[in-house]
Amino acid sequence: MSPSSASKAEKLGYKNVKVYLDGMPAWRKAGKLTIECVQCLIERVKLDIPTIIVDLRPVQEAKKGHIPGAVSIPLTEISTAYEKFPKDKKAPIVLYSYDTKSAVQAFEIISVWGGFTNITVLEGGFEEWKKINGKIATGDLPTKIVWEPKPRPGEVSVEEFKAIVEKRPADKFILDVRDTEEAENGMLIGAINIPTQDIPKKLTEIPKDKEIIVHCLTGVRAELAFHTLKNAGYKTRFLNAIIKIDPTGRYEITKE
Amino acid sequence: MKTSRNLLLYLLCLISLILASSSLVLAQTPKPKILKPCNQCHAPDEKILRGTLGGISQKAETFSVNAGIIWTVKFDDKTKLTGWPPPVGKIPKDKEIAVKFIERDGEVYAESISVKQPAKLPEDKVVSTEFVAEAVERGDALIIDSRPAVRYYEGAIPTAINIYDAEFDKHIDKLPKDKNKLIIFYCAGPT
After folding, report:
1. Predicted structure pTM score
2. CATH number of the domain within which B65 lies
3. Given an 8 Å threshold on Cβ–Cβ distance, is B186 in contact with A20?
4. What is the interface pTM, i.e. ipTM, of the complex?
């Protein structure tokens, strides 16, 4: 995606365009600071994306008002709190404090432990959260993170997806949201191709009386399309896995 | 006189025959020889099939290539191969290939197969984690996260703005006025 955007920028006349090809996975692996905006957290919760929220302020402060669902692990105790963190290093954790700076300290301590790949700092912290009128809860907070890796909302299991592709039940509609060029190299038999970005203007081509099963190449665009369709009132799920399809419609699914 | 008239008749027959046969050829819709994505860089060529490699059998000396439709192509040890070490049977499936072919005894035979080399960004365009970290520190670059918004919500490089690649054209107003400003794009890594 990034090389394609870069070349578009160059066509617009930008002369100093670079591509960080290794991207987000390399950034996280290097333990570099990852942040997210308060609005991003709101969207994330709204989309029901599993998220662990950690309040780093002193317990007394957190009790007076915190982000709903937050776990309390004060910054002063972070360095000895390893046991309180999930074993699953991919667990998505958002750290917040009063502001960005104090949460960055916690981020750095956790980075030193190594291995955690999905930790972010809430930009602007609780101050910013109040400013945009984010929901606030009061009272006691849990002090230990409870984490069960869950499928992302709307995920269809690989087994069920395969069964749908084989049997093509009348109440299911397989939607391929890859770009047309990709789909032309091979599509699932019975699937219809509408690229993710075209869905809003092509809703009339998607039946309302069927469940829409969405796939792309990696699951990223399919998830995006899933949300678009869900918001438009569709019953839908998506395949969160890598799927490769040959010109005859044969396919191979790899799940991370 | 009689012979010349016969000759004329003969010629007329011949001409109409040629015309008839050529219009027959024209009436046939030509089979596609180029897969759409290849069109971006290559002009269609009557003698070249461009597309993705399907199944391949070294034993049967046959492979299939999706060039808009699936073509079945014969090859042998005289088939020239560029861009991949021989034998032909070891070229991975789905590779983008160009096949220079001739038709022989009703079969399509590959004179040469050229395997597309991975698209390489010029090295001076690709930057490292440290380069990006320093740019974040200096604050002099516009960092653009090209992933879909859902992924951006889950954490991004500090100061990065989100412009999903597929919606780039709608957001060019977010780009700086200064065309010399450093812009760094990133996404979820090469896939």
Report:
1. 0.64
2. 2.40.50.320
3. yes
4. 0.73
